[in-house]
TrEMBL record:
The lineage of its organism: Bacteria, Bacillati, Actinomycetota, Actinomycetes, Jiangellales. Signal peptide: none annotated. It comes from Haloactinopolyspora alba. This is Short-subunit dehydrogenase. The keyword Oxidoreductase applies. InterPro entries: NAD(P)-bd_dom_sf, SDR_fam. One of its GO terms (molecular function) is oxidoreductase activity.
Length: 276
């Protein structure tokens, strides 16, 4: 690394995002963190000494306002790390009318990226999606029912959203790599964070809060390693744009739908339609 980058990390009020922000700031980058909780986000920012922004991804107007603030504050953004996400339980629609897990994990970061596209392209930026090995278990994706109104299950919609992260990465690469933008998705590992603790799913709460199961999980710092690596290293040299990574290597196995270029385009087009 020679010159510090300007790096925006969402979902950075704790867990992987906060750990990555600490690493990147320590390495000399200009980091801006985004979080849902004003108190937690402000505390992490004060601890590290970085800029911070508050946005609740269950409200798309928050995302639009965030994009405007970031565009004004940073004429150049070298890395956008779409790390915010979560798994919940009972069906809940946001104020925007979308299923909560779908909006937080896919639609909101899709919107943020779209709104920042001009800045990102001009910066030859990297866009990083925090996906999950859960994408492997995703059912057949129905782009006409992304809210899962016909087939809801808390883990099912989460797995679908993580597959959508990979498909978004593929299509972002296809559309904009020739203009200088690079994109990657990654699985951070099974990390012991607050992720999943707000879920109404008994299984997810057990996994993320039980002392025995948490002992088998990795640390936020280890989970953040790949995010920091993708942010700091050179696409086309250390990693390939449009690719989904596990343990700093292209994933050997994921959902067969993840490589479906037609599905990736349909997801992009449908996401744009939903945001009109």
């Amino acid at each position: 690394m020679t010159e510090g980058k300007t790096i925006v990390v969402t979902g950075a009020s704790d867990g992987i995002g906060a750990a990555a922000a600490r690493m990147l700031h320590r390495d000399g980058h200009r980091v801006a963190i985004v979080g849902r909780s004003p108190q937690k986000t402000r505390a992490v920012a004060a601890e590290i000494g970085v800029d911070h922004y508050v946005a609740d991804f269950t409200r798309l107007d928050d995302v639009r306002e965030l994009a405007g603030e970031l565009s004004t504050a940073y004429p150049r953004i070298d890395v956008l790390a779409n790390n915010a996400g979560g798994v919940f339980g009972d069906r809940a629609k946001t104020a925007d009318g979308f299923e909560r897990t779908f909006q937080i994990n896919h639609l909101a970061p899709f919107l943020l990226t779209k709104l920042l596209t001009d800045t990102l392209v001009a910066s030859n930026a990297t866009v990083i999606q925090t996906s999950s090995v859960g994408a492997r278990m995703a059912d057949t994706l129905d782009v006409d029912d992304l809210d899962h109104d016909r087939n809801f299950g808390p883990v099912r919609v989460y797995n679908a959203a993580k597959l959508e992260n990979i498909l978004f990465t593929r299509e972002l690469h296809r559309r904009y790599h020739s203009h200088g933008l690079s994109a990657a998705a990654f699985h951070p590992g099974n990390v012991a964070t607050s992720f999943g603790t707000r879920s109404e799913s008994r299984l997810m709460r057990f996994i993320t809060t039980n002392r025995i199961t948490r002992a088998m999980l990795t640390t936020p710092e280890k989970g953040a390693d790949q995010l920091a690596w993708l942010a700091e290293s050179r696409p086309g040299v250390e990693w390939e744009s449009g690719t989904y990574y596990e343990k700093r290597r292209p994933a050997k196995r994921t959902n067969r739908q993840a490589d479906d270029a037609v599905l990736a385009r349909r997801l992009w087009d449908r996401s744009e339609e939903l945001l009109r």
